[in-house]
Amino acid sequence: xxxxxxxxxxxxxxxxxxxxxxxxxxxxxxxxxxxxxxxxxxxxxxxxxxxxxxxxxxxxxxxxxxxxxxxxxxxxxxxxxxxxxxxxxxxxxxxxxxxxxxxxxxxxxxxxxxxxxxxxxxxxxxxxxxxxxxxxxxxxxxxxxxxxxxxxxxxxxxxx
Length: 160
Ligand code: SF4
Hints:
By secondary structure, the chain is α/β, with parallel strands linked by helices. The chain has one domain (3-151): Aldolase class I (TIM Barrel). 21% of the residues lie in helices and 24% in strands. It has four helices and seven strands, in the order βββαβαβααββ. It has a seven-stranded mixed sheet with strand order 3-1-2-4-5-6-7. β4 (69-74), α2 and β5 (98-101) form a beta-alpha-beta unit. It is globular, with a radius of gyration of 14 Å.
């Protein structure tokens, strides 16, 4: 499959959010998650066939429309690492800073070549499963204290 043939199941695209990373961001919610964390805030996002089907170009049109950086979230964008890698590369080509939320830990990502390739253009990951016993509403940009914000590039905090 060539990159332009990928389609994406998109639950929502929110413009100007402040809760998914620093500054005003466009958040793309990709359907599908296998982690099934107990007390997940959004179990409706687990179905990989949920949401609306969008092409790469259709998503990019929404992102280009705004002067915002971008967050890929879900669901878990790494459930489909190849298509997420293509999306991230295209967003990066627009000069955007990219955050990505995933239920995988950084160590799990590094151990899997497919996952590792998918974060090549990501500036910052918020990683790890949600653990209800470690829930902390005072945490910025994450739900439980086991989850880590890991800056992967020098400019990861560009607008923070
Ligand atoms: S990784 Fe996120 S979306 Fe997936 S089950 Fe856990 S909390 Fe829910």
